[in-house]
């Protein structure tokens, strides 16, 4: 009996260890997180935030595990799956769909957030279920892809619907995996970021209050009562920060995103330029 009990305890401990723990915010960023909490509490919107330094792994979040509608930020996942299929020699960027080059569809979808272009590429990669399954099979948790853009827009608006949602941390993890070339190859990643850098939507969101010339590769999402912005921000020291900000309800959501982004930028900059942190910058 003792042997059976020991085995049961051991198996339960192993099962517990196999469950990934939710990442806690980094101690050095507590003050930044407190500033963001104060900013969010002063907003009438419901706000979710996550940010991660790709060089050091330091992170922060506000409502990081709360699902928010992705809206058009899902287009990053559509593009990533297409590029994964390119990496596996199933497709090429020189292919045409409906007589239009794929690169043109990509530009329309990511730069101008064209919904028809998104649904054309959605269909070409196998539809929402294919995107969802690809993410899940690759260990991306906390992201749901249930409908194409036309179906999403035709449905009754519910900003608390779990369908087609992501938590801030999950979106940051997706972007991290893209950047680290875990989901797509390095050339595919470089291509994706080069297109995201040309994004023409949401000029009053993530980029608005950052210092002039700051490199940002991002994708916005918008529905009635919802404003999102997710992407990469290059810091003066060469670090890259992944940021996901979701806002729903309330008013002046774009400004909330802009102010939160600037707080994140200033906070990471002040923390990781301290001399005693220098050893981390080589990671």
Q: How would you portray this structure in words?
A:
Helix content is 43%, strand content 16%. The protein contains ten helices and nine strands. The chain has a single domain (26-272), classed as DD-peptidase/beta-lactamase superfamily (Beta-lactamase, 3-Layer(aba) Sandwich), CATH 3.40.710. A hairpin with a 2-residue loop joins strand 7 and strand 8 (226-234). The strands form three sheets. The protein has a five-stranded antiparallel sheet, sandwiched between helices. Strands 3-6 form a two-stranded antiparallel sheet. Strands 4-5 form a two-stranded antiparallel ribbon. It has 283 residues and is an alpha+beta fold.
Annotation keywords:
single chain; 283 residues; alpha+beta; Beta-lactamase; five-stranded antiparallel β-sheet; two-stranded antiparallel sheet; 10 helices; 9 strands; 43% helix; disordered N terminus
Quick summary:
The protein has 283 residues and is α+β, with helices and mostly antiparallel strands. Helices cover 43% and strands 16% of the residues.
Show the helix and strand layout.
Elements: H1 2-18, H2 30-41, E1 46-53, E2 59-62, E3 68-69, H3 74-87, E4 96-97, E5 100-101, H4 102-111, H5 115-125, H6 128-137, H7 149-154, E6 165-166, H8 168-179, H9 186-196, E7 216-223, E8 226-234, E9 240-248, H10 253-271
Antiparallel strand pairs: 1-2, 1-9, 3-6, 4-5, 7-8, 8-9
What is the makeup of the main sheet? Answer: 5 strands, antiparallel
Helicity range: 40-55%
Distance between the termini: 49 Å
CATH homologous superfamily assignment: DD-peptidase/beta-lactamase superfamily
CATH architecture: 3-Layer(aba) Sandwich
Question: Could you tell me the number of beta strands?
Answer: 9
Class by SSE composition: alpha+beta
């Amino acid at each position: 009996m003792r042997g059976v009990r020991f085995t049961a305890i051991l198996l339960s401990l192993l099962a517990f260890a196999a469950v990934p723990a939710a990442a806690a915010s980094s101690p050095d960023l507590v003050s930044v997180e407190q500033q963001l909490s104060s900013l969010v509490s002063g907003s009438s919107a419901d706000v979710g935030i996550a940010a991660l330094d790709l060089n050091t792994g330091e992170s922060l979040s506000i409502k990081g595990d709360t699902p928010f509608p992705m809206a058009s930020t899902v287009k990053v996942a559509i593009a990533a799956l297409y590029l994964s299929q390119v990496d596996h020699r199933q497709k090429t960027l020189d292919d045409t769909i409906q007589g239009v080059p794929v690169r043109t569809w990509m530009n329309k979808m990511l730069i101008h957030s064209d919904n028809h272009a998104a649904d054309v590429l959605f269909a070409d990669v196998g539809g929402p279920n294919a995107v969802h399954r690809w993410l899940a099979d690759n260990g991306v948790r906390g992201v749901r892809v249930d409908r194409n853009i036309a179906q999403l827009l035709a449905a009754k608006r519910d900003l608390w619907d779990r369908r087609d949602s992501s938590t801030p941390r999950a979106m940051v993890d997706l972007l991290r995996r893209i950047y680290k070339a875990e989901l797509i190859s390095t050339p595919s990643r470089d291509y994706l970021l080069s297109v995201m850098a040309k994004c023409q939507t949401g000029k009053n969101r993530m980029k608005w209050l950052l210092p002039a010339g700051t490199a940002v590769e991002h994708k916005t999402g918008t529905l009635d009562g919802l404003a999102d912005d997710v992407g990469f921000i290059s810091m003066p020291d060469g670090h890259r920060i992944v940021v996901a900000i979701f806002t729903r309800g309330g008013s002046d959501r774009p400004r909330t995103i802009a102010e939160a982004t600037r707080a994140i930028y200033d906070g990471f900059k002040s923390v990781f330029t301290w001399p005693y942190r220098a050893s981390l910058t080589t990671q």
